[in-house]
Amino acid sequence: MIRKLLNCLHLYNIIQVNLHSIIFCNTLKLYFMAFTVPALPYAYEALEPHIDKETMQIHHDKHHQAYVDNLNKAIAGTENENKSIEELVKNAGSISPAVRNNGGGHWNHSFFWESLAPNSGGSPDGKLSDAINEVFGSLDGFKEKFNAAGIGRFGSGWVWLGSQAGKLVICSTPNQDNPLMDVAECKSAPILGCDVWEHAYYLKYQNKRPDYLNAFWNVVNWKKVAERFKP
Ligand SMILES: [Fe+2]
Fold first, then answer.
1. C-alpha to C-alpha distance for 46 and 118, rounded to whole angstroms
2. Closest CA to 63 of 116, 106, 113
3. Looking at the DSSP assignment, which residues form a beta bridge with residue 166?
4. Could you tell me if 25 and 12 are in contact, meaning their C-beta atoms sit under 8 angstroms apart?
5. Where are the alpha helices (DSSP H) in the chain?
């Protein structure tokens, strides 16, 4: 609907050849079609003491915003500007490094915020719990392997729990890659992700990534993770 309206406005611009209408239309187009940072589904301080308020503010408002701004710049005026973030991410390796890094950054962080929740943690139940036990032996066994993958990621990146045709796998990706990308070494449908860039934990945990990963389990939104799991 909005795209049709914009197409009409675009046609109007061409017909009118009016500078003011062109500026108006371009501004309107940017407003409607650019990607935006989704609002956090909880307060900045809601995950304390496990993830602190200042980290959440900077992470969401500055880092995520920068990925979105750079993604919008990278696709403006190209054949990719009308594509969904999922389409961009899946073909990131063949589009451009800017889309790979910033499209990945946008998708990953949007997914991350929803993977967390206040007053959460604990254990999954139902089919997800069964699937974890089947592959990893126990929830603790799963956490141990997930943490090891996060600790083992050299530099910046992510660690994921994903589903490969219903079977759970742990993947780690560099930078802002994710398991949906065409360039991913470990492809899967992610159901949980943990950001192990230093910007996700340095203010509170400094160089102690293992401490951050241990704290992460106290704020995992297992209800959301279970919703994403399609066995
Ligand atoms: Fe991040």
1. 6
2. 106
3. none
4. yes
5. 2-16, 19-33, 53-57, 65-75, 85-90, 92-95, 97-115, 126-136, 139-152, 202-205, 209-216, 222-228
**Tokens standing for 43?**
């307060």
Distance of CA 67 to the CA centre of its chain: 10
What's the 136 CA to ligand 1 centre distance in angstroms?
Answer: 27
Q: Tens of pLDDT along 33-75?
A: 699 999 999 999 999 999 999 999 999 999 999 999 999 999 9
What residues does 190 pair with on adjacent strands?
162
Mean pLDDT calculated for residue range 187-198: 98
Q: How far is the CA of 59 from the centre of ligand 1 (A)?
A: 6
Q: Is the pLDDT of residue 12 over 90?
A: no
> Are the CB atoms for 175 and 99 separated by under 8 Å?
no
Which residues line ion ligand 1, judged by CB < 5 Å? 195, 197, 200
Other CB atoms within 10 Å distance of the CB of residue 120: 20
Q: How far apart are CA 112 and CA 99, in angstroms?
A: 19
Place of tokens 């297992």: 222
CA of 203 to the centre of ligand 1 (A): 13
Residue 128 Cα to ligand 1 middle (Å): 26
Task: State the amino acid at position 39 in one-letter form.
Answer: A
Instruction: Sort strands 189-195 and 157-164 into parallel, antiparallel or unpaired.
Output: antiparallel
Q: How far does the centroid of ligand 1 lie from the alpha carbon of residue 10, in Å?
A: 36
Residues in the chain: 231
